[in-house]
Amino acid sequence: MAVNTSPESPLPVGEVSRLIGGWIDRLGAVWVEGQITQLSRRPGAGVVFLTLRDPSHDISVSVTCYRQVFEAVADVVGEGARVVVLAKPEWYAPRGQLSLRAAEIRPVGVGELLARLEQLKKSLAAEGLFAPERKTALPFLPQLIGLVCGRASAAERDVLENARHRWPAVRFEVRNVPVQGVHAVPQVVQAVKELDAMDEVDVIIVARGGGSVEDLLPFSDEQLVRAVAGCRTPVVSAIGHEPDTPLLDYVADLRASTPTDAAKKVVPDVGEELERVRMLRDRARRCAAAFVEREERGLAHALARPAIQDPHRMLDERADHVLSLLERGRRTLGHLLDRADSELTHTHARVVALSPAATLRRGYAVLQRADGHVVRDPAEVTAGEALRARVADGELTVKVDG
User: Fold this and answer.
1) What is the distance between the alpha carbons of residues 310 and 312, in angstroms, rounded to a whole number?
2) Mean pLDDT of all residues in the chain?
3) Where does residue 147 rank: exposed (0-12), middle (13-18), buried (19+ CB within 10 A)?
4) pTM for this one?
5) Is residue 164 within 8 Å of residue 223, measured between CB atoms?
6) Which helix (H) or strand (E) holds 24?
7) Which residues, at least 6 apart from 236, have a Cβ–Cβ distance to it below 8 Å?
8) Burial of 214 by CB count in 10 Å (0-12 exposed, 13-18 middle, 19+ buried)?
């Protein structure tokens, strides 16, 4: 319930602490899951002190329990173990401290952890975080590789040595972080985000040399999975644990079976690339030589053709043919002209023979009246009428006599 206060009538610290304690006392018992980070079992003490931490966030809470409560699970529970605790919140008024009073502690078994991971896997897959189309192809030759791994770990050594053996000029930006335990998730997430923010980093490798299911739980944490899914830089998962695949393997752009395998997949082998270049160069040389050889054969074949060896031969043959056609045309035209001339001469002779002038030369005359009308019948003229008589060499005037 709200408390009415003012600058003139403030509450004393003790009253505030008492009110908070009263509110917390009204809370019932709750089941809480977390990871034990600190465990204090003083000899002869009847109370055990624990610190329970959220594996995905930097949040912790103190837990106390009676010795007999903890003794029931002491053989299977220790620092780093995941547990489920039935506890009631308590407020220690003198120091203003919140803690949980545990009435029961249950270890989280491997089977239960795997079942939860499978459920989380299905949920994240339904969101499309594991979809192949979201994955980014790795660059052929990364100039700078980001590496997230444990400090002085075998995984770090395997990646660096194998990568530099394959390509000596490769460079690394290494982030050493805890790869198991309560601090692993936030520090791995922070390292991945730092490397992703660097423009010069071409690919990020998250490496660890395997481990038990419990050791690899940070690499199945939802916070880490979402951080990797949001990276713009390609991420390679190299956890090195075959039987139980952490969720990081599904969201990463490439999964490597071991840190050594990651180095081989991310960095090309300089010897292999030089050999590939040599093979491609030899292949190109053979292709060029074969092309030149083929063109030379084609050129030789073309030069061997008669038209190329004696280019004027075709012109001479065509010239002879043209001359032959020309002579033939001239002869044909001459025959046609001769025939036409002969026919014209014959026709002219016939025309001359049949013409009126030829008839007149034979002594005939043509009589015409004054109006030019040819006289064909004596009845057409009258006595004394003057007529014009046309003869072969001219004309004369005649007069009709009664």
Assistant:
1) 6
2) 86
3) buried
4) 0.56
5) no
6) helix 13-25
7) 138, 203, 204, 205, 206, 252, 253, 254, 255, 256, 262, 265, 266
8) middle
